[in-house]
Amino acid sequence: MFCPKCGCENNELISYCVRCGAKIPHFEQAETSVREHTPINGRLHLIENAVNSVKDGSWSLEEFLDFMQELHNTLLTKEQEIRDIVIPEEATGEFQEELNVGFSGIYLYNQGIGLMLGYEGDDNTEMLDEGLEYVRQGNERINEAMRINLASRSKLEEEIARNAGDTLLEA
């Protein structure tokens, strides 16, 4: 994992950067390579299953709303952790596209969950379907932000490798 503040590479198991002490955000995706990206769809699948379960009656309305509220609280906490990351002003431009796309995804995700939390268990499930569509769109934007992040990291790794090669040649 690369530190979003200083760019230092850190062990993926740690929570704070070894160089500057910034909090390292962890996503529920296992990274196989900087050049590969596996979309984060696990939470989306959980939500889809929850919607299907309340629609087919295998979950009660109370079980569904409890699940959605717990999920909503978890996502709000994760969002705040991301917002709390301090990015030096001189580096903000480098992260701006990723941040904009990621936060638009978070916004859509929250919109969808908010709609689903308003479901009252009637036969009109359009609110669930509309909320699920917002979540799907948000999930895709979050995945796009991660693709941007991985491309940026790849570029940074190439630059670091090039600089290391230049340093070796000078020595």
Top keywords for this entry?
171 residues; elongated; 0% strand; single chain; 4 helices; mainly alpha
Task: Describe this structure as you would to a colleague.
This protein has helices spanning 42-55, 61-83, 92-117, 126-170. The two termini are 29 Å apart. The model is unreliable at 27-35 (pLDDT under 50). The chain is built from 4 helices and no strands. With 171 residues, it is mainly α. 63% of the residues lie in helices and 0% in strands.
Could you give a quick summary of the protein structure above?
The protein is an all-alpha fold. 63% of the residues lie in helices and 0% in strands.
- Radius of gyration, in Å, reads 20 Å
* Cα distance spanning the termini: 29 Å
Characterize the overall form: elongated
Structural class: mainly alpha
Q: If helices are DSSP runs of H or I spanning 4 or more residues, what is the number of helices?
A: 4
Strand content: under 5%
Number of strand elements: 0
Average of per-residue pLDDT values: 80
Identify low-pLDDT runs.
27-35
Portion in helices: 55-70%
Largest sheet: none
**SSE run:** HHHH
Describe the protein's topology:
Layout: H1 42-55, H2 61-83, H3 92-117, H4 126-170
Helix pairs in contact: 1-2, 1-4, 2-3, 3-4
